[in-house]
Specification:
By secondary structure, the chain is of the alpha+beta class. The protein has a domain of about 40 residues. A two-stranded antiparallel sheet has the order 1-2. It starts with 17 loop residues before the first strand and ends with a helix.
Length: about 80
Amino acid sequence: MLGREVPVASTRAGHIPGVHRVGFDSAADQVMMIHTARSREGFAVGAVAAARWIAARPKGTGGVFAFADVLDQILETERSEKR
């Protein structure tokens, strides 16, 4: 897409649940977005939500899904439950 390789790095360090940084860097400026997980609970909740989503899929609709597929349906379910 960019016509060149984009470096990606991942580090897991002991008790740190997760610090995720996405950045774009140029000679003129830098844009950085940082997500810091305070515990692993959020990851567990997400894994359970995704497993429930997969289990609820109609038979014969298996395959590979993008996270956007899961998220769109979860958000729509939450919106309808709040109405």
